[in-house]
Amino acid sequence: DIQMTQSPSSLSASVGDRVTMTCRASQGVRTFLAWFQQKPGKAPKSLIYAASNLQSGVPSRFSGSGSGTDFTLTISSLQPEDFATYYCQQYDVYPLTFGGGTKVEIK
Amino acid sequence: QVQLVESGGGVAQPGRSLRLSCTGSGFTVRNYGIHWVRQAPGKALEWVAVISYDGIDKHYADSVKGRFTLSRDNSKNTLYLQMTSLRPEDTAVYYCARDPRLQDTLVVPTAPDFWGQGALVIVSS
């Protein structure tokens, strides 16, 4: 199985900050990489697919990049509603696998 | 709008069975595959399985293969996850989520787009 490693596991930031988090795959997944946002007690929400494509309705302050083994999710200006845990998922091969998550907390 | 609602969660003893249902609305359920993803308390998301729009193609995580079975009743817009030989480590919130491709096989994987709110399954004696 492909292992997905996210870093950092948590970060503290302020409203308005630029935030970057990374996701690394144990083997290349081309650009078959998705990002999800999850708030406490809620279902995940799809943000990005194919490494850099925003799902419909996702604010443009979110962006994704990368290919192969290294990927990045960036929030250009953190908003109060963005405090959540973010997960990456590879879908290059079965079984689909998720990273351990990055929790974005309020500084 | 697209909605998915899970039901059937609850408490089961180890070794017993439980069946989850996932009912869709706001889209033509029979045209889409459905993923199941679970999340143990305080843990990360774990992909469980996926079934194609026509119920022919299915893929399972190794952790549930041979114990969990996917099926669907397109006349009821409902998907099922039959869980047998339950273990304490199956305790989790189970989400169903839509595969975004229209009438596609699952030969090539893809990530889900819309998610349900989840159903809690507790396996405990």
Across the major sheet of chain B, the strand order is 2-10-9-4-5-6
**Which strand-content bin applies to the residues of chain A?**
over 45%
Mass-distribution shape of chain B: globular
Mean pLDDT of chain B: 96
Give the count of helical stretches of chain A. 0
Major pleated sheet of chain A: 7 strands, mixed
Low-pLDDT residue intervals, each spanning 5 or more residues of chain A: none
Determine the number of helices of chain B (DSSP H or I, runs of at least 4 residues).
Answer: 0
Blueprint (SSEs and pairs):
The complex is a heterodimer of chains A (107) and B (125).
Chain A: E1 4-7, E2 10-13, E3 19-25, E4 33-38, E5 45-49, E6 53-54, E7 62-67, E8 70-75, E9 85-90, E10 97-98, E11 102-106
Parallel strand pairs in A: 2-11
Antiparallel strand pairs in A: 1-3, 3-8, 4-5, 4-9, 5-6, 7-8, 9-10, 9-11
Chain B: E1 3-7, E2 10-12, E3 18-25, E4 32-39, E5 45-51, E6 58-60, E7 68-73, E8 78-83, E9 92-102, E10 119-123
Explain this structure:
The complex is a heterodimer of chains A (107) and B (125). Chain A contains no helices and eleven strands. Chain A has strands at residues 4-7, 10-13, 19-25, 33-38, 45-49, 53-54, 62-67, 70-75, 85-90, 97-98, 102-106. In chain A, the strands form two sheets. In chain A, strands 2, 4, 5, 6, 9, 10 and 11 form a seven-stranded mixed beta sheet that branches. In chain A, strands 1-3-8-7 form a four-stranded antiparallel beta sheet, with no helix packed on it. With 125 residues, chain B is an all-beta fold. Chain B has a six-stranded mixed beta sheet with strand order 2-10-9-4-5-6, with no helix packed on it. In chain B, strand 4 (32-39) and strand 5 form a beta hairpin. At the A-B interface, strand 4, strand 5 and strand 10 of A face strand 5 and strand 9 of B.
